[in-house]
Amino acid sequence: MSIAMPEGVNGVVNALTESVELHDVEVASVVSGSPRQGVLELGTIGARAGATTEVGIWELSAGEVTDTEIDEIFVVISGAATIELLEVPGHPAETGRVLTVAAGDVVRLVAGTRTKWTVTERIRKIYFAV
Hints:
By secondary structure, the chain is an all-beta fold. It has strands at 23-24, 30-32, 36-45, 53-60, 63-68, 72-87, 98-102, 106-109, 114-129.
């Protein structure tokens, strides 16, 4: 897989129009619908400081899927979804909380959190993950 913005190279990518190849979501993760998802790796930052952060564009079509999250912050640039927190390690009171996200929202998900994404409108985000 090629990286759209390799380290050490100045460049620009339009996060709204850049092509993201979509694939069927793994059957075990699908709750309903026929969602498809894809990732366009933009590259990494922070390697020189000793902590590498992965940056990319992620897209998911309509449907419901479950996931175990990595530690990330992301910005929704298009679409809409709800993210139900099924299990939050160390914070059981957060279980059942639902985050409603749409274009312009900035979201933090903690590593190990089990989620259910219900995508009502194809969602696209720019993520920063470790």
